[in-house]
Amino acid sequence: MLKDLIATETVAPEKCAGCGSAIRDRYYLLVADRAWHNQCLRCCKCLHTLEAELSCYSREGNIYCKDDYYR
Fold it and tell me: Mind listing the pLDDT tens digit for each residue in 16-70?
């Protein structure tokens, strides 16, 4: 899930799917084909951060923790 961001002048920085800001960190999360700051990856229902979780779930473009996904 971690992806190394190549810092070159010719590559535009990725935009975070959570906050919309440019990702300038060396590492970021790539979930559901979208880039996220570590602290921005959260469940859309309970808002629990998911950066330390082993898995997260996606449905209709929303990100869920395991409990909320199965509810």
Answer: 999 999 999 988 999 999 999 999 999 999 999 998 888 999 999 899 999 999 9
CATH of the domain at 35: 2.10.110.10
For 33-39, which contacts have Cβ atoms below 8 Å and span 24 or more sequence positions?
Answer: 35/3
C-alpha to C-alpha distance for 61 and 71, rounded to whole angstroms: 17
- Domain of residue 35: give its range: 27-68
Q: Which residues contact 20 (CB under 8 A, 6 or more apart)?
A: none
Q: Mean of the pLDDT values across residues 3-23? A: 75
